[in-house]
Specification:
The protein is α+β, with helices and mostly antiparallel strands. It contains 6 helices and 29 strands. Strands 14, 20, 22, 23, 24, 25, 27 and 28 form an 8-stranded antiparallel beta sheet that branches. The longest helix is centred in the first third of the chain and has 13 residues. The two termini are 38 Å apart.
Length: 550
């Protein structure tokens, strides 16, 4: 059963910064245990491995009267060591009855895991905590007899989350999707959703929202990316293979008052920022504008180690490529003047231009990109915020590019890394009693991340160095020297990108120990250039893909 708001947005915050509404679920553990009993009973040679005691149905569920869950957690601990930390039933594509039957027959606990994974290669991440759990289950490149046979150029990752918490966000696309008739008897409320570069399968079981997602192209497949039609076949096989493998009932949670956003009282003499949602003129997708989100989704440590830092556009500021919409006239040499075809902002071909490294900050969450962003008015956007470090050092007087790798990026919270080797994107998962969020860092060199062990399951502490601010975009030097930082919250549609701008403002103020000043919005009508912007042929996500343009 899904219940009413758990954390309410705070109405008492200065400058109208608010915290997000979060709802929580009540778990029907009795139904979960009955499902577990049914799955085990279907395999007679495994039926005696767990103890099921029937309690009276009118009494509250008490796992002490039904020790099967505690036994299950102990049996699967060598494979899923944190399963007993999940307050929701842990569902994974794992042949638990077969595993139990083999154990009863004397097989060692260290049997090869793929034997029980319904054709999947491995579970590369399993992380459970007070709000639920997340897993990354990987299928072999090339498929096998259980999965689609087309030869994939890279392994296919299924990201799967079950969460006690669900964020309420202002997103017109939320809650939509198509029914899946072939699985309706197993998952009556199952919805198939294609958004933000993923096919997602969202359903409720035991009163808990679960979502499986696979990165895909909503068009024809490529050698290194699945089409969403192909990804759907993998996802549906995944859902058919789900079994209960653990979890532990938690005490019911009382309502928790929303915490005020921590902001210093002393004013900064120099830090200024433009209002959330105010983009550089005509830099948004089809000039639909930004998303004025004043929500602080999490109270974090600022992601760059040292101040000052400058949140602004990389594509529509000096040296920027105008997101490949055209530069007029085309610059060639350092200092050449130009503008983007989409607007009349005067720019120079020099990444070290003082404007790039000065206040005020400016939001670019909904800036023109070919990536779906459901909260942006045009449905497409940047999905995050670009941040430059303190200074730009040039290699020589003739250089127009900044030297990368001089400033550290740090963990914004205690958390767990989600990242396969060689991927550009590094995601930090935070799972606490009152929040379930993910933060993504981009443009750090993958080889350095690999060398530092920033891969699936790596635990980091708030403020710990996780990399350096760089310019990697498919190759070193592929973009300006900056950190792309974004934020996702868990919803009933899965992990959805939300605007991190206000969250970053609050975190930067705490780093400075002083409050910034918001500049009144510029209400003058922007100059419009006669340029038509055609819709992108293919919405694509950016998570961990080598051809990202964030």
């Amino acid at each position: 059963m899904f219940v009413s708001t758990f954390l309410l947005p705070s109405p008492l915050l200065a400058d109208n910064f608010v915290t997000p509404p979060i709802s929580f679920s009540r778990v029907d553990w009795r139904a979960a245990v009955e499902q577990l009993r049914s799955e085990i009973s279907a395999r007679p040679d495994a039926a005696g491995s767990l103890t099921f005691w029937r309690g009276r149905r009118h009494r509250p569920f008490d796992q002490r009267r039904t020790p099967a869950l505690m036994q299950l957690n102990a049996i699967t601990a060598p494979i899923f060591p944190a399963a007993n930390q999940s307050p929701v039933p842990v569902l994974l594509p794992f042949d638990l009855p077969g595993y139990l039957a083999d154990r009863l027959a004397g097989a060692p606990a260290s049997l090869p895991l793929p034997r029980y994974l319904a054709g999947f290669r491995s579970i590369d991440l399993f992380e459970a905590g007070p709000s639920g759990y997340s897993a990354v289950v990987t299928a072999m490149a090339g498929g096998n007899s259980d999965l689609p046979a087309r030869v994939f150029a890279r392994p296919v990752e299924v990201h799967f989350t079950g969460s006690l918490l669900s964020y309420g966000i202002n997103d017109p696309a939320l809650g939509k999707g198509d029914a899946v008739k072939s699985l309706s008897s197993r998952y009556p409320d199952l919805r198939r959703i294609i958004r933000e570069g993923f096919v997602r399968y969202a359903f409720t079981r035991y009163g808990v929202p679960y979502v499986a997602s696979i990165q895909c192209l909503d068009s024809v497949a490529r050698t290194n990316r699945l089409s969403c039609r192909e990804a759907s076949q993998v996802a549906e096989h995944f859902l058919k293979s789900l079994r209960i493998v653990g979890g532990r009932p938690a005490r019911p949670r009382p309502a928790i008052a929303s915490a005020a956003v921590e902001r210093p009282t002393e004013l900064s003499p120099d830090f200024t920022y433009r209002p959330p949602g105010e983009l550089i003129a005509n830099s948004s997708y089809r000039r639909n504008g930004g998303h004025p989100d004043r929500t602080v989704y999490a109270q974090i440590r600022f992601p760059i180690e040292q101040a000052p830092a400058y949140a602004n556009s990389q594509s529509f500021m000096n040296w920027g490529d105008c997101y490949l919409k055209g530069r007029l006239p085309r610059p060639h040499d350092k200092g050449d003047a130009y503008r983007c075809r989409l607007n009349d902002k005067k720019l120079v071909f020099d990444e070290s231009a003082p404007e790039n490294y000065s206040y005020p900050w400016q939001d670019n969450f909904c800036e023109t990109r070919d990536f779906q962003a459901g909260q942006c008015p045009g449905g497409f956007g940047h999905q995050g915020q670009d941040i430059r470090p303190a200074t730009c050092t040039l290699r020589n007087n003739e250089a127009d590019r900044c030297v990368p790798d001089r400033y550290a990026a740090v963990a914004v919270r205690d958390g767990v890394v989600i990242r396969a080797p060689k991927q550009q994107a590094m995601t930090l998962l935070v799972n606490t009693r009152t929040e379930h969020v993910r933060f993504r860092y981009m443009h750090m060199a993958p080889d350095k991340l690999d060398a530092d062990g920033m891969v699936h399951g790596k635990r980091v502490s708030e403020g710990e160095r996780v990399g350096v601010v760089s310019n990697y975009q498919g190759f070193q030097g592929g973009t300006t020297t900056h950190l792309h930082f974004d934020l996702q919250v868990f919803t009933r549609d899965g992990w959805i990108w939300v605007n991190p701008y206000s969250t970053l403002i609050a975190s930067y103020e705490r780093l400075l120990g002083a409050r910034g000043r918001e500049i009144a919005p510029d209400l003058s009508p922007p100059a419009i250039t006669a340029v038509s912007e055609t819709p992108p042929p293919q919405p694509a996500s950016t998570e961990g893909v080598d051809d990202d343009e964030n």
